[in-house]
C-alpha cells in the first residue's frame, strides 16, 4: 500500500497555483485546479466520484493517479471538565500525531501540529522530550483541520493555532502552503486574522514569513527575556538568540501591521521574579503586543530526567501577583488557564509514543 502511494501524486496540500499547474501538466485546462481546490478544501470531499463538475474520464484518471486523504483518524478523547477534545491521527507511513479542539466562551480553537515530535528540546515541553521524527506535509497539516471539522462541525471552529507538536518555522514550506490554503476565502471561512502561528523563534524564518505577504498572527514563545535563562530552558536560543528574534519581530510588525503575542510559561523561581516583570515591561513598550501567561503543565507523566525533572509550576497566587504587576504597567495580559490536562492535551503535553 505504501509503495502504491509513493507512485501516486498527493493532491491535498497543493495550493491553488500548484493544482492549476498540475492539471496543465496532465493536459487539462488550468481551471480544473480551482474546481478540485474547491472540492478538497471547501467541501472536504475525499472521493473523486463526488466531484460532480469534473468529466467522468478525468475522475477515473485522478482516482488511478492521485490520492486526496493523507491522515487517518485513530482515536479521540474528550476532557470531562472542559470539553477539550484531543484527536490521535495517523500518517500513511504510520506516524501518530495529535491535534486538539479547545472550546471557550466566545470561540472554539483548533490546535494543530506541524511535525511528528519536535527537534527543539525545550526543557518544559513533553513534545521536546519525545524527540523529532519528521516534518508533516501541507496536506497532513490540512487534514487535521478536515478531521476536526467533520467531527465537530466546520461552522463551530472559529480559530486555528499552530501550537501543537513541532516547530512550524522549521517546517517552513509546508507550513506556508497550509497557510495559503487556510487563508483562501474558499476554504475554512477562518481568515488569517484568526490564525496564530507560534514559534520558539527562528529569526530568519520570521523575516521570510513577513515577506510572504500572509498576514498571519504571530506568537513568540518568550518564556524569559534574559538570554542565559532562555538558552537554558530553550536550547534553540543559542542558535537564534532572543535579540535576533526581537529584531525579526519588529520587522514582522512593520510589514504586517499586526500585534505580537508573547507566550510565557510560568516556571517557579526561573522566570517569575521582579527582574522578569521589569524586562517584560521594557520589551512590551517597544513592540505592539500582549502577553499570554500559561501556567506550567506538569511533565510528570513523561518521567523527565535532568533539568526538566527540576521544573515546577509557579504557585497560583504568585502567578496572580505577577500578572497584576504587569497589568499595573498597562500591559495586556491573558492567563491561559489549563485546558484538557486530564487527557494530556494541554499546552506542551502533546506527545505520542513512537511505534
Ligand atoms: N514550537 C512552537 C509551537 C508549539 S508549543 C513554539 O515553541 O511556540 C505551543 C506553546 O505551548 C508554546 O508557547 C510552548 O512554549 C507552550 N508549552 C510547551 N510546554 C508547555 C508546558 N509544559 N506547559 C505549558 N505550556 C507549554
CATH architecture of the largest domain: Alpha-Beta Barrel
Rough shape?
A: globular
| Total DSSP E strands | 14
Bound molecules: S-adenosyl-L-homocysteine
Terminal Cα separation, in Å? 18 Å
- How many strands, what sense, and barrel or not for the largest sheet? 10 strands, mixed
Order of helices and strands: HEHHHEEEEEEHEHEHEHEHHHEHEHHE
Strand content: 15-25%
Spatial strand order of the main sheet:
3-4-5-6-9-10-11-12-13-14
Low-confidence stretches: none
Spatial extent as radius of gyration:
21 Å
Task: Return the CATH topology of the largest domain.
Answer: TIM Barrel
Number of domains: 2
- Report the CATH superfamily of the largest domain: Aldolase class I
